[in-house]
Amino acid sequence: MIQAALIGAGSRGMFAYASYALKRPDEVQFVAVAEPNEEKRALFAKLHNIPPENQFSSWQELLAQPQLCEALLICTQDTQHFEPTMAALDKGYQILLEKPMSPDPLESLQMAEKAERLGRILTICHGMRYSTYYSTLKQLIDERIVGRLISIQWNENVGFWHQAHSFVRGNWRNSKESSPMILQKCCHDMDMLQWLVGGQCLKISSFGSLTHFTPANAPEGSTLRCTDGCQVEHECPYSALKLYYNDKDEWPAKVVALEPDREVRLKALQEGPYGRCVYHCDNDVVDHQVANLLFDNEVTVAFTMTAFTNEISRTFKIMGTAGEIRGNHKWNEIEIIHFSGKRQVIHPERVEGGHDGADTLIMRDFLRQVRSGTAGRTSAMESARSHLIAFAAEHSRLTGQTVIMENYINELKVTQ
């Protein structure tokens, strides 16, 4: 059985990944935790029976100890990934790191290079690669079921309420405090597209902006908080009372308060970030963005990310020389349309766990890597390269220039 430690006991660390140990105690046991929030730290320690001497209020305290175990999960906020990862690699830990690697492109490269140099495992939580749905899609493309791959249309449908929760009110609302939207939300997509295409991105251009979630669009009668007597709260699809307070005992309400006590939750909405009007937050990340990508095997990709969808899903059309593949991840459906007229519909097998089982499968694969010392589905360097596509897209959006990836990477290395 593998022993592991967790740095960052937020919702991803505590519920998405470490919960695997509660279901498979014969495979992994958590023996230490570092988390500055006392309530979260205490809850995680209670769930995993972690003794007081292995409960730390910071990653620095945990990593100051002699190496406590083999495996380490780092699930801190985006800007707090680089330092603990670099220190933990030196310490000898095998690491599962929440995405994105870092909001800085050079730091992402440096982490990957160090893991490679030291021969350590550094697996990035690009869970989509582990999903049975996308694994099936990759197999179909590699088998040339629709001939040679030529073009992809790919949509990241964020969903109106998810945008409001995570990218307007939540932890990833402000690029200076976390990451640009194209990195934080869409590094999954950039990684997936690189994997599916099976090539290296040569050029990228991108456009987008924050258009809707601004004070200029606040409806008449709105207030700074949904709990301040807002006159339009009843009709507003972004009402914090609807999303977090009324009969809500699951995610995302648990982000507001771990316990479902109504008094505690109301106080959190009155004082915390999730009770704010979506038109009066300190958000600056885009609410829609497009990117065009050219790969070295001549495949082109048209990517769209938008907040303004009802469903939270990824949809796509993959065009080959002999047909098309269309899909909607939310429906777990892949449709193959052959130019001959034949049609097939595939519903990949589902696995228990978050993100259609991807959270379970990435933990399973990470533990297999630690046990066997063999490579995982993706390397840290490959993850860093897909991150660089996202960074280049943001550079293009801000400058209006088409980015040539080779030049962009060389310029980064000059500053190293």
Question: What percent of residues are in strands?
Answer: 15-25%
Gap from first CA to last CA: 40 Å
Q: Give the class-level CATH name of the largest domain.
A: Alpha Beta
Helix content: 25-40%
Name of the CATH architecture of the largest domain:
2-Layer Sandwich
Note the total helix count. Answer: 16
Mean pLDDT: 93
Describe this structure in words.
This protein is of the alpha/beta class and 416 residues long. It has three domains: 124 residues, 3-Layer(aba) Sandwich (Rossmann fold), CATH 3.40.50; 193 residues, Dihydrodipicolinate Reductase, domain 2 (2-Layer Sandwich), CATH 3.30.360.10; 61 residues, no CATH class. Helices cover 37% and strands 20% of the residues. The protein is built from 16 helices and 15 strands. The strands form two sheets. It has a nine-stranded mixed beta sheet with strand order 14-13-12-11-7-10-9-8-15. Strands 3-2-1-4-5-6 form a six-stranded parallel beta sheet, sandwiched between helices. Helix 5 packs parallel to helix 6. The protein is globular and about 60 Å long. 44% of the residues are buried. The mean pLDDT is 93. It comes from Gordoniibacillus kamchatkensis.
Quick description:
The protein is an alpha/beta fold and 416 residues long. It is built from 16 helices and 15 strands. It has helices at 11-17, 20-23, 38-48, 59-64, 82-91, 105-118, 132-142, 160-169, 181-184, 187-197, 240-245, 253-256, 262-271, 358-372, 380-399, 405-414; strands at residues 2-7, 28-34, 55-56, 71-74, 94-97, 122-124, 149-157, 201-209, 288-295, 300-306, 313-320, 323-328, 333-338, 343-346, 403-404.
